[in-house]
Design goal:
The protein is mainly beta. The protein has one helix spanning about 5-15, and strands at about 35, 55, 60-70, 75-80, 85-90, 95-100, 115-120, 125-130, 135-140, 145-150, 150, 155, 160-165, 170-175, 190-195, 200-205, 210-215, 220-225, 230-235, 245-250, 265, 270-275, 280-285, 290-295, 300-305, 310-315, 320-325. Strand 5 (about 85-90) and strand 6 (about 95-100) form a beta hairpin.
């Protein structure tokens, strides 16, 4: 038998007489949740192949995420009963950024620590505190100081969430959810406040359960979630920083799913990405409920992250989740 023919026979035998099969495509990771699409406009914001990822777990109750632009960037979030601010890095590393938040004695499991976190105009990390009843700041050198802790001579209840206006003023909510004891309450209402850049604190309004807070991209509207009523409210912002007459944006009180109106963020188009019953409700500026992102645990707050601000990070009960979307977060 000629050498060439013999080689062909041997190769055919070795390959079983068949063409080699193409390499299998890697399977997409299973989604850590589901996505509910209610309006065609939702598809332009959340692509059909979007996947919810679980990044970390085992926490007490996660809240108040904020993306930090330092190096490759990282995420901070609160573990409220854990009494610490946690740092999550893109390589998956989880570490303590601040531990403890509250240094006094407390019962295990109480909502003792920080909640909402934000970066101020000078690049400092600013966060609300439950048991301490205040808002604090950590500078780049690690120095910790108090931003505000009282109104008209009485301690704040338990500041919850916060957002900065471009003029440097800080708007925040102050419900009573995180009071150490009922006797610690010194404010008779659950307020919405404005701390001006020069340090003047004004109570702008009140709600039954004011919680998440954020400005529209043009800052003409302030959105505030009311956890007690499961509603999202819209306030016109006046030129002097005060608020006009409130309007109801959307009412979720009829939902049978667990969860309430809680933390929220805005995208560049003015849509709200607001934690609510069952997941993150995507709400158009006119109040239309476009769809819901539902991780395996009901989320309490969200943050835009990564350099392009097109990743939505979700703090949900004991875990941290994310999803890549087509929307860009409002900076």
């Amino acid at each position: 038998m000629r050498a060439g023919l013999l080689l062909g026979v041997l190769l055919t035998a070795a390959c079983g007489g068949a063409e080699p099969e193409p390499a299998a495509e890697p399977e997409a990771p299973p989604s850590a949740g589901t996505i509910e699409r209610l309006d065609p406009a939702f598809d332009a914001l959340v692509p059909a192949d979007a996947v919810i990822e679980e990044l970390a777990g085992g926490f007490g109750f996660t809240e108040g995420p904020a993306w930090i632009d330092d190096g490759d960037g990282y995420l901070l979030f609160s573990d409220i009963p854990g009494n610490r601010i946690v740092r999550w890095d893109p390589d998956g590393t989880v570490s303590d950024f601040l531990n403890p938040v509250y240094e006094g004695e407390h019962e295990e499991g109480r909502l003792v620590g920080s909640n909402g976190i934000i970066v101020d105009p000078d690049g400092n990390v600013v966060f609300t505190e439950h048991f301490n009843g205040r808002i604090s700041r950590i500078a780049a050198d690690g120095t910790r100081s108090v931003v505000v802790d009282s109104f008209e001579g009485g301690r704040l209840n338990s500041p919850n969430d916060l957002d900065y206006h471009s003029d440097g003023s800080l708007y925040f909510t102050d419900p009573a959810y995180g009071l150490p004891t009922p006797e610690a309450r010194e404010q008779d209402v659950n307020g919405i406040y404005r701390l001006s850049a020069d340090g003047e604190l004004v109570r702008l309004g009140e709600q039954t359960g004011p919680n998440g807070i954020a400005f529209s991209p043009d800052e003409s509207t302030l959105y505030v979630a009311d956890s007690a009523t499961r509603q999202w409210m819209a306030y016109p912002v006046n030129e002097d920083g005060t608020l006009g007459e409130v309007e109801l944006l959307l009412d979720a009180s009829a939902s049978e799913e667990s969860g309430s109106a809680d933390g929220l963020k805005i995208d560049e188009q003015g849509n709200l990405w607001a934690t609510g019953p069952g997941g993150v409700w995507v709400i158009a500026p006119d109040g239309t409920h476009l769809g819901t992102i539902k991780p395996n645990e009901v989320p309490a707050n969200v943050a835009w992250g990564d350099a392009d601000r097109r990743t939505l990070y979700m703090t949900a009960r004991t875990g941290l989740y994310r999803i890549r979307v087509n929307a860009t977060g409002d900076r």
